[in-house]
Design brief:
Helix content: over 70%
Radius of gyration: 19 Å
Order of helices and strands: HHHHHHHHHHHHH
Largest sheet: none
Strand content: under 5%
Number of strands: 0
Distance between the termini: 28 Å
Structural class: mainly alpha
Shape: globular
Length: 312
Amino acid sequence: MTDDSRQARAISAMFALGVVWGASFLFIKVAVDETGPTEVAVTRIFFGTLAIGAYVLFTRRAWPRPSPRFLAQIFVLGLFGNVMPFALIAWGEEHIDSGVASVLNATVPIFTAVVAAIALDEERFTTPRALGLLLGFVGVAVLAGAESLDITDSNVLGQLAVVGAALCYGIAGVMLRVLIHGRDLVNVTLMQLGLSEITAIVMLLAVTGGSPDFSLSIEAWLCLIALGVFGTGIGYVAFVWMIEVLGSVRASLVTYIVPVIGLILGWLVLDESIGLNTVAGFLLIISGVAIVMRGQAPVRRPAAAARATVGE
């Protein structure tokens, strides 16, 4: 398959994944209304692990023998790519609308660009990227409104939690770009989700004192299954592949699509309002992302020095 063909397929996958991840914020909102954020994180990782595990068994993939150092790196990747952002978003959606959460999640490419500029030689931080970063955070402030000055307000804390999750995704995206180099994407994802599930279970037991709440309605269970299988399992493999083909910053452009779907579904299904500040914040964030992308350096394979930093 030619590079042009792979990039065309990756772009198509990006649009499909944007729809799936946009709907994920609706699924999270429905589930977290009936249980806690750590239960949501554990359950979505569990179903995601099942989906990827079934695929590995069906395709009879050879299981690698990773070194202890690589497993430690995958553990850290799981913390930033799964456990912390899943719990933070679910906690945030206890206090804010699902559509607002999807818009705040659109800051992922901005955080990815900052982290990539620090960690990778080929992802230089340029003046346009700095301007895009500033514009994106102005958008976050506009979306939050005047209440953003009161950090004790539950809505503000919910918004900060989702922004924190976006930072986690940015870190994980850059780590993935380096760690997947020359490795089987599906196996790396399965290892990441498996280790993430163990970590999330330990966190759940600590938070709930050993008494998690899984007494959910059928509707909530269906949302969690869809969230895990499609958003966390199949969707995650697609995203890892997109990072390898397009680069970590370009792949994170999927967040252009996510907030549009999230806002529409929140309005249609949950009757969430779309205020002027939400629209203005969305436009500013997306404009900041666009500037960041226009100012990026050409995408190349990770340098040897970068591999030495976080590679096996």
